[in-house]
Sequence to fold (809 residues):
Amino acid sequence: MITRTLTVALVGNPNTGKSTLFNALTGLRQHVGNYPGVTVEKKAGTTRLDEMDVRVIDLPGTYSLAPRSPDEMVSVDLLLGHVKGEGRPDVVVSIVDATNLERHLYLTTQLMDLGMPVVLAVNLVDLASKHKLVIDFPELERKLGIPVVPIQANRGIGLDALKAAVARVAESGQVPDGVPFPEPFRREVVALGEVLGGEVEPFLLERVLLDVGGYTEKQVAGRFGAAVPAHVAEARTRLAGGGCPVPAVEARTRYAWIRQAVAGCVTRPCQRVVTWGDRLDRVFTHKIWGTLIFLLLMFLVFEAIFVFAKPLMDLIDSGRSWLADGVRGSMDAGPLRSLLSDGVLKGVGAVLVFLPQIMILFAVIAVLEDCGYMARAAFLMDKVMSKCGLNGKSFIPLLSSVACAVPGIMATRVIENRRDRLATILVAPLMSCSARLPLYMLLIGTFLSDPWWLPGLALFGMYMIGFVTAPLVALVLKRTLLRGETPVFVMEMPAFKVPQFRAVVRRTLDAGWAFVYRAGTLILASMVVIWALLYFPSKMPDGRSYDVVSEELREQADQATGEEKEAKDREANELYGEWKRQSALGQVGQGLEPVFRPLGWDWKIGMSALASFPAREVIVGTLGIVYNQGEVDPKDVMKSEDAAEGEPSAGSRLGKTIQEEWSKDPTMGKYRVPVALSLLVFFALCCQCASTLAVIRRETRSWAWPVFTFVYMTILAYLGALVTFQLGRLIVG
Amino acid sequence: MPTLDQVVAGRPCRIESVTGPPTLVQRLLELGVMAGEHVTVVNKAPLGDPIEIECTLTRLSLRKSEAAHVQVTLPD
Fold:
């Protein structure tokens, strides 16, 4: 007996339960990879069939095999065996929705033209009987000429029959006949094949003729030269004259064939059954109720990321400090200890701290998408988003970015159009995320706290900067770099259904894992780099180590009491500040002071801003160090007093110190408020977040886009801060 | 001839032709929105755009600018 593995490709429209079938077949035996050069994820898994391992490939949901982009071409390439390192699948399983057979069979008939065995899996048969649809499966099988298996993917019903049918056609290798196109069209396919020297499969020849401006046309033109487009154009003119206008001829031919096949196999009730889904749809897309429900849901999404994630994030953070304390307690002061506690552990913490937000957002998105609400949300928001060149599906990613751009950018996967998706990714980091809050609170609390209405207005203003800038930048991008014809926004409104718990859990875990696995290393690396720049050089002028001496001073301070303790504490903080000010990063800051001056900043502010490029919330800690206050915890800025001691908190002490320090500087002393505003605007617009850049790299599969984002946002931030300070100076002066 | 974006909600009509940018036409045809079919505007978004239509059991959302490429006739 020959043992060989069988490869099966799953193809179907979106919302047919294709992923459910894939999960039901493969269980935990699946993995996600990449196809070279495109952003489509390759989902593959294995299932058992008798004694054989069967490889199952889950292709992205699509309405047809008419590729318009490299991403859509991947499915066609895979099915034809053109993907490097990937053999041609042995069998295609076409999964269709029993409640809307005719439309779903359109894709099936295209698959039947590929010249490979096809099995039809008719899903949602339970729903069809609820709609009072009666389907004669044996008759359908006879008419279509391919095996037809009724299944209920969500309950695992019919899977054995499906596998058996796959085994049967794999064995016989029986290829379906396909849909007969009109004679003139077939002649043109043959003629084009001859022009191209017999090197292109008939399926692709059909696509070249049918898809006006499609991807296959461009590909063939690139490969065979400029004579081809001219030939294709002439062929299309001839076809139009001969009563087979492109592209209508395809839909006409296929639907006519399908109607004839389905005619006698499907009995429908005379009156369409009004389902609870129809009623829900009416409410959810209603002018008033729909909008209210939408706003309420968005509020809940936002709250979920912002509030529910908080305790989990705090837990991760305290876990990190507990470990860091452990390291500090069990090792002697020195570079290795500092690398572990301040470099590596901080880096790992910085990665893990995003997990709660990512997983909560993805759980919510999975539920919304699985139940069919996502399309309604996009429907409601499309008009507003189209004003800035985006579409309705960009709304939830951008809203999520107000909590954190990392899950927001990952959520852009729901946007099919590549250019719209890129534009959304590129502007998402402009939305004011929660990591900016500590600095906002510190500076607003220090410089803009009077009169009573000013702090609220200032904070509102900081959020508005993002809300106004992001759409404007998106508009500019869509007019320049991402220019192209307006993408088609014809979107199916899928029927409402109860979301599947297992699918939701799986997507949530996948999202978390993908982030840790693919973005984690870059975040960790950037944290270690900044650590090294702040640690070295670590020798004091007298040859002793800053690290060791400041540690000794802290220990002495811990043992002392009263005024002596205060004096020692101050001494330790001063030494710590001196160390960081003379560090490599401090020297860079001093060297770059001429660059910071137009923004109103001295080198200390500049250095703190530089140190917070991997993670912007670090600014508060760095300002604390630079101004001899020790490392201030960003969380301390949020409260005005230490609850236990009734003394001013580290945050408000830092605010006071900043005010005093800036007053000493000849220019900054006069323009303290413009300096603060310039720093605020800089942080609002700058992409100081290694995690965001790592996620952009992951989602776009390219280094160019994260670099672009970093560069444009840094320039924007610099200019914004410059204008703010110079205008402020004019007003004050 | 009236176009689909001008039709009031709830009034069934018949598609006469679908013309316009090739990508749009092809997508509509694939989804079964083609000459000879019956179509109903079931709903409009709060700002009047996009619109939700039902055509051969399929519910779709289209922008008004896209619906303007679908020519229809209304029953008397």
The first strand of chain A starts at residue 6 and ends at 12.
